[in-house]
Design brief:
This protein is 48% helix and 11% strand. It is mainly α and 179 residues long. Helix 3 packs parallel to helix 4. It is globular, with a radius of gyration of 17 Å.
Length: 179
């Protein structure tokens, strides 16, 4: 979705406006994008969908898409306290040139506001402000949290501690796929 939002196509502009407002893109658009992307050859052995599905209807769409493509679904739920989530989102900074990601609380750049890799300015995403974050977390509580029960009942949910560095969380996830 981020790649699409960076394009100047009408769909890309629409997605960018919706994301900037802290809202979610429609299920029809998401399903179209996900099905198209999962059809690429680099997804034959698996892929990671970050932030999809977010609602029960989206989960049902994903079930249909996965079945039509012969894919199986494994769900990782990364648990983290709300205050950590807020700091991760509000503190996120991205290099305007290379896309490197920093966080003012957890992984600051050496020089404030400047990328360590190429010296370019760091930017804050338009949806990483307090108001948009509050809306996204409220939407999560209302629409996404029910997916935990849905995927638990199907035996496909694996919860991991989502605190610590990305490397820490990754180390907790790997055994799920090695078993």
């Amino acid at each position: 979705m981020r790649e699409l939002a960076q394009s100047s196509t009408p769909l890309g502009v629409h997605v960018r406006e919706v994301q900037a407002a802290g809202q979610l893109v429609s299920d029809d658009i998401l399903a179209e994008v996900v099905k198209s992307r999962l059809s690429h050859g680099d997804c034959e052995r698996g892929c990671i969908l970050d932030g999809f599905p977010r609602t029960l209807p989206q989960a049902w769409l994903l079930e249909s898409i996965a079945e039509s493509l012969g894919h199986q679904i494994t769900v990782i739920n990364m648990d983290a306290p709300r205050d950590v989530l807020i700091k991760r989102l509000s503190g996120r900074r991205t290099c305007s040139a290379c896309g490197a990601i920093y966080n003012v609380y957890f992984k600051p750049s050496k020089k404030e506001g400047v990328c360590d890799l190429d010296g370019q300015p760091l930017i804050t995403r338009s949806d990483d402000n307090e108001e948009a974050i509050a809306r996204r977390l409220a939407l999560y509580d209302e629409k996404t949290r029910p997916l935990v029960d849905y995927y638990t009942q199907s035996g496909r949910l694996h919860s991991v501690d989502g605190t610590g560095t990305p490397e820490d969380v990754f180390r907790r996830i790997i055994p799920i796929f090695e078993s």
